[in-house]
Amino acid sequence: MTHVVTEQCIKCKYMDCVEVCPVDCFHEGPNMLVINPDECIDCTVCIPECPVEAIYPEEDLPEDQMQFLKINEELCRDWPVITEIGERPGDADQWANVPDKLKLLEK
Cβ(74)–Cβ(22) under 8 Å? Predict the structure, then answer.
């Protein structure tokens, strides 16, 4: 199993999750993080660290977020690994509860 970063992370990218990951499976894109499913060990430590609740175990992934399983898998190939909290977007709090952000994903 793996964990999946979902739409809620788009334009928020708080990064609290990356420092607790014991296997460095997070990858950083322009306005979102993703998890490498081949590296994730299903430890769950990242879930409570996400202030916008954007991370789900694969088996609990909401139906309307299923496309993010493939998005995480594909984008982790191109995006660099992130292991430390960087600077989050200045307007992250404004985007935290905005629905339907998939169209805003920058690849």
Answer: no
